[in-house]
Write a structure and sequence with these properties.
This protein is of the alpha/beta class and 242 residues long. It has a single domain, classed as 3-Layer(aba) Sandwich (Rossmann fold). It has 9 helices and 9 strands. A 6-stranded mixed beta sheet has the order 5-6-7-3-8-9, sandwiched between helices. The protein has a 3-stranded antiparallel beta sheet with strand order 2-1-4, covered by helices on one side. Helix 3 packs across helix 4. The chain is globular, with a radius of gyration of 18 Å. Bound molecules: adenosine-5'-triphosphate. Adenosine-5'-triphosphate binds next to strand 2 and helix 1. Keywords: ATP-binding, Cell membrane, Ion transport, Membrane, Nucleotide-binding, Translocase, Transport, Zinc, Zinc transport.
Length: 242
Amino acid sequence: MKLLRIEHLDVVRGDHLILQDVHLVLERGEIVTIVGPNGSGKTTLLKTIVGALGPTRGMIEMPRGLTIGYVPQRLHLDATLPLTVARFMNLPRRHSSHHVDRALKRAGSEGLIHRQMSDLSGGQLQRVLLARAVLESPDLLILDEPTQGLDQWGIADFYRQLDSVRHELGCGVLMVSHELHVVMRTSDRVICLNRTICCEGTPERVASSPAYLAMFGHDTEEALALYRHDHASSTAPLGPLS
Ligand SMILES: Nc1ncnc2c1ncn2[C@@H]1O[C@H](COP(=O)(O)OP(=O)(O)OP(=O)(O)O)[C@@H](O)[C@H]1O
């Protein structure tokens, strides 16, 4: 079932053409990751999909009643303002404690409910943001660099949790990531964006495409080959990160 269909999308801000003729389709159950250099339009694309920005041209189509969970790139919280995880989960509107508990559990952060948001570690904060995004059991989960600032164990941990959420909800996942090696092993499909989509397909296909190699070099291709080798002899769903 298609969760999202984008055709001929342009986004212009001021005199800046940020996105040009973007086409994208996402099916239920898929994990699709957008990669691209800084300033290539990744956040703009996600914000346009969630409706925070308007398209200048083109079409964004989703099934009627589709629910979206969104983890934004940055969260600006005043560290001097007392705000517990429980209160944060109920912003901007209240949810039943059953739903809050279920979401925290899904995101692997059930022990954090009484903690202050400002006291959370980077990895704990990302899990709480994931919990908030899954509160309403979304059909489509959209995440903008969800593991920014985490160490390699935190990153591996987060992606394991995300995979378990995806299986439990059966949702589609669209995310932006700079962790190319992890992206290549956790995504069903990768989209390489540089104002327009320069290549897309399975991780293997994208990692060896000339457009991707021109942008990111051969490192990921080698890591992917290594991972395939490691994976065959390992039972862990995500091996250690290189
Ligand atoms: N409101 C705006 N007006 C003009 N230009 C903008 C506006 N918002 C974003 N841009 C520009 O659009 C381009 C794409 O920004 P965007 O944040 O989507 O990139 P990104 O790929 O997510 O970058 P990063 O990897 O650094 O997070 C950048 O050059 C940015 O400066």
